[in-house]
Specification:
The chain is of the alpha/beta class. Among the domains are: 50 residues, no CATH class; 74 residues, no CATH class. The chain is built from nine helices and nine strands. It starts with a strand and ends in a 5-residue tail after the last helix.
């Protein structure tokens, strides 16, 4: 789908965040970026989205892609209904696809709540509305910056399941930033562990998606992935 090749980036007056950073993301896969605060995870997302400009390097796309960004904060407009929030990408382009908007709301379980306002939704529903807004653009690539970090553990598990279900139905790719090695191991086709702006190792959990969520989270593959990620985060590349 796309390749990030030798990207270098530093914020004005700051130290180098990325130094010749490279990754590949394939079609219909979830790739997680995992690492400590300040290691460059969110910067990578913003460079891919075109919100920042790299000093050096390039992003090579196999073909034009439709991108959508899901932030840690739901970033909903409080004065607008759920439907108006979900249709924002279309309105910005000057072409609202009402069918796509309502299909997105149905997909995330908000069908029938389209006339409610963010203040009338629970935390989990607000995040679902944020995901629906991204889906309404029919993206081929979702860029997700710790979207579930503020949710409690139960809601976080529910949103993880929703993401996997939507990926299976719509066959998009996702570049997913998280601080949770458990979330990364469960969601990802590949986990890229970062330190100081570089990838220090890659783990492919290889979970059997035909199994239920509880079976996947107690499977040998999941436990092995967590152990491998933990070693990389501790600085053990062996």
């Amino acid at each position: 789908m796309f390749s990030v090749r030798n990207l270098s980036f530093a914020y004005d007056g700051g130290s180098q965040i990325l130094d010749r950073f490279s990754i590949d993301v394939n079609s219909n896969e979830i790739v997680s970026l995992l690492g400590p605060s300040g290691c460059g995870k969110s910067t990578v997302l913003r460079l891919v989205a075109g919100l920042l400009q790299a000093e050096e390097g390039e992003i090579v796309w196999s073909e034009p892609q439709e991108l959508a960004f899901v932030f840690q904060d739901h970033a909903l407009m409080p004065w607008a209904s759920v439907e108006k929030n979900a249709s924002l990408p279309g309105r910005l382009k000057g072409q609202i696809d009402e069918k796509a908007v309502f299909e997105a709301l149905e997909a995330v379980g908000l069908g029938g709540l389209e006339n409610r306002y963010p203040s009338e939704l629970s935390g989990g529903q607000r995040m679902r509305a944020s995901v629906a807004r991204a889906l309404a653009a029919s993206p081929t690539l979702l860029l997700m910056d710790e979207p579930f970090a503020a949710l409690d553990e139960i809601l976080r598990f529910q949103m993880n399941e929703l993401l996997l279900t939507l990926k299976a139905q719509r066959e998009f790719s996702a570049l997913f930033v998280t601080h949770s090695l458990f979330e990364a191991a469960y969601l990802s086709d590949r986990v890229l562990v970062m330190q100081d702006g570089l990838i220090c190792g890659t783990v492919e959990p290889g979970l059997d998606r035909t199994l239920g969520a509880e079976q996947q989270r107690t499977s040998p593959a999941y436990l092995t992935a967590i152990q491998s990620i933990s070693r990389l985060m501790a600085g053990d590349s062996a």
